[in-house]
Amino acid sequence: MKRLSRLGGCALLLSLLLAGMTLAQTKPPESPENVARGEEIYQRRCWFCHGLEGDGNGPVADYLDPRPRDFTLGSYKLRTTESGEPP
């Protein structure tokens, strides 16, 4: 269940970013409700690329270039600068 909670957090973060929010603007508290919501979002929007375990081996992963990120590694690349701009 710990892995699913981590994936839930990733999905919650993804939903915030897709909504146009940045980490500097808001970071929701890690509550059971937020983790459950993140898991729901992951199951609806992310698993088919990133896999049920978040290992980047979802059913459509072989058809994507670049391949989906492996969340189990704990390595994330989030940035707030435009492409080509220094951080």
Task: Give a quick precis of the structure.
The chain is mostly helical and 87 residues long.
Topology (SSEs and partners):
Elements (H helix, E strand, L loop, with lengths): L1 H17 L13 H14 L1 H4 L37
Task: Describe what you observe in this structure.
This protein has 87 residues and is mainly α. Helix content is 40%, strand content 0%. The chain is built from 3 helices and no strands. The chain has helices spanning 2-18, 32-45, 47-50. Helix 1 packs across helix 2. The chain is flat and about 35 Å long. It starts with a helix and ends in a 37-residue tail after the last helix.
Count the E strands.
0
Give the class from helix and strand content and strand pairing.
mainly alpha
Distance between the termini: 35 Å
Strand content: under 5%
Rounded mean pLDDT is 78
Structural Rg: 14 Å
The major pleated sheet works out as: none
Number of helices: 3
